[in-house]
């Protein structure tokens, strides 16, 4: 089943995208910062969300991991 049709999978993809973009921006800021508009701007926005809401994103990752282990 595609991640677009399953809400749990879609949420997992969004969380992993946010975490990956935030990590990439910490390691190589110019890689993410040079594309602030267009389709590639979504990755810049995901990195900003990961930076500003990091406690909530990490909590959501722990909840999702626990949910995947239990079910």
From TrEMBL:
It is found in: Golgi apparatus membrane. It is a single-pass type I membrane protein. InterPro entries: KISH_domain, Ksh1. Residues 1-26 form the signal peptide. GO terms for cellular component: Golgi membrane. The chain crosses the membrane at residues 53-70. Keywords: Golgi apparatus, Membrane, Signal, Transmembrane, Transmembrane helix. Belongs to the KISH family. Involved in the early part of the secretory pathway. This is Protein kish.
